[in-house]
Every structure is written in C-alpha cells, then in structure tokens.
Amino acid sequence: MVEEAPFPGEAQARVRVKYYDYGVVSVLFEFPFNGEWTDLISLSSRWISGTDLPSRAEEIAKEKVARTRPALVKPYDNWLSEDYFIFFMREIGGNPSGAHLLSSCGQQISQVVRGENAVLSDDERREVLQSAMSYYPNDLAVLGWNAAFVYDSAAGSETTLQLLEYANSQLLEFRHYDELMTRELARVYDTVGQKSSIINRWRLPREASRLQTVLLDVTELTERADNAIKFLSDMFSARQYRMAANKIGVEDYRRLVESKLHTAGDLYTFMMDQFHASRAFVLELMVVIILVIELVFLFRGI
C-alpha cells in the first residue's frame, strides 16, 4: 500500500510511504533538483554526510504504523532503519549517452555516489564506476552502498528505483534475522552451558522446540524474500538487483544469517542427542532398579 503527502516545511517536495507485507515500512522523500554538477555534488555531500531526514522518516513511519497497530501481528518494539539516496536525472544538458556521460563526467558521478566534495583518487573513482550499468545507449545507473546515480527517463527508471528500494528492504530483513538469531543462540548457549545434570538435560527439549520454531520461521521468511525476486523475467533487472544487493550488503547479512541457522541446527541436534542420552540412562537405571528389587524379593523368598 502506498500513501502520498506533502513534505512538511519543504516546498515542491512530497513524501511517499509504502508498506511491505513482511514488516518493512518504506518512506520516500522526493526533492526536485535543477542545477550544475557542482550544485549536485554539494547537495550529495550535505545529504549523505548527515541530515535529519532519517529521524524525520522514522517519525513519519511510526505515526503511520501507530494507526494500523491493532491489525499488526507481533509488532516490533525495536526498529531498524536504513537510509539510501538516489540522485535521479531525467535530463542532462546535451542529452549525452550513458557511455559518453560516464567517460566525460565519471569523476563528478563518483563524487555524487560517495557524497564527497573533494575530488576522488583514480582508484576510488574506478571502484565506484565499476558498478555502472546501462541497458539502452541513453541510460545509466551507478550503484553504491548508500547512494546511487540514475540517468534515465521517468518510465525507464521505475524498475531501477523499485529494485533499489526492495534491496534495502531485504537488507533490513536480514539485519533483523541476524539480531534475532544472535539473541536465540545466546539463550541456547546459556542453557547448554549450565551444569550438566539429568534435570537440566530433561529441560533441553523445550529449548530445542523453541529453537526449532525460530529456525522454521526464519527459513520460511528468507525463502519468501528470495522467491519474490526469482520471478524477475528481465535478466537485466535481475543483474541489476544482484549488483545492488551486493553493494548495500544484503549478501553479507544473508551469509551471517545462514551461518547462524547452520549453528542453530547443530545445537538443536546436540540438545536432542543429550536429551535422548539422558532418557536412555534413566530407562536403563529404572530397569536395573526393577531387577534389583526382583532379586531382593527372590532372595527373601529363598
């Protein structure tokens, strides 16, 4: 669902709020721009270096979510946030091609993506421009870890902007899963680290069941996030998404979550093995006690 509203205190700007079905709220601020490269570089540096936009976005998101809270299931108490800047150019003087723009204004584009007023080194400029992608001769997208430069028509850029928004929403998801798994693993480590005894081992199935529930929930949600992007029939969009996901850190957090899921699976197996060993010991002990009792009665009878 998308809501639009004027941006408070800013002329000719608007706010767009989008709700995803897996607990992510996207707040988009749109500001018009018209100027020279120096103006755009200065604006990029000012915004990326630090503004109150993230805090204002959180206020708007919380106000919107508060209205729908009665309908929410397990709403989050602790909010995670990610900010991302997209400098979208519909028109540039001379209508250059993407390749010409990259060769003639690569330094300025790299400064915009990095949010730097100072001229970057050749190595850093090449690093930034490695993520440049074009589909038609007259479009260009340069993706960075917290900002992107997009040169395209309004219609042509729509997919790129949506993919960048979706990649950032996935980053938030995996950050949440990473924190959730960290808390659950810490809880399990505390349980497993307690002094070994039959009573403590008898409690392990409850903790194992809780851990298994978390494992299934996280696995289901990560698979749903993966499946959402698999339906991209456009190979260029798929490559663009993979580039954006790698740049902003989605894959790094995915690997962290997958590693913790693997660790949690091993812990679940360990706890159940410990429980089964304890149960087998108790059963064997009961058999021995029964045999001893039978022998006592046998010898008394003699």
SS class: alpha+beta
Spatial order of strands in the largest sheet: 4-7-6-5
Sheet of most strands: 4 strands, mixed
Mean pLDDT: 80
> What gross morphology would you assign?
elongated
Content of β-strand: 5-15%
Q: What is the number of strand segments?
A: 7
Radius of gyration: 28 Å
Number of helices: 9
The residue fraction in helices comes out at: 55-70%
Q: Span from first to last CA?
A: 86 Å
- Which spans have pLDDT < 50 for at least 5 consecutive residues? 1-12
Order of helices and strands: EEEHHEHHEEEHHHHH
Describe the protein's architecture and organization.
The structure is a single chain. The protein has 302 residues and is α+β, with helices and mostly antiparallel strands. 63% of the residues lie in helices and 11% in strands. The chain contains 9 helices and 7 strands. A hairpin with a 3-residue loop joins strand 6 and strand 7. The termini are far apart.
Which descriptors apply to this entry?
302 residues; alpha+beta; 4-stranded mixed β-sheet; 9 helices; 63% helix; 11% strand; disordered N terminus
List the helices and strands and how they pair.
Elements: E1 2-6, E2 14-19, E3 25-30, H1 37-49, H2 53-68, E4 85-89, H3 98-114, H4 122-129, E5 132-133, E6 140-143, E7 147-151, H5 154-192, H6 198-202, H7 204-230, H8 235-248, H9 250-301
Helix pairs in contact: 1-3, 3-4, 5-7, 5-8, 5-9, 7-9
In a few lines, what is going on in this structure?
By secondary structure, this protein is an alpha+beta fold. It has helices spanning 37-49, 53-68, 98-114, 122-129, 154-192, 198-202, 204-230, 235-248, 250-301, and strands spanning 2-6, 14-19, 25-30, 85-89, 132-133, 140-143, 147-151. Helix 1 packs parallel to helix 3 (98-114) and helix 5 (154-192) crosses helix 8 (235-248).
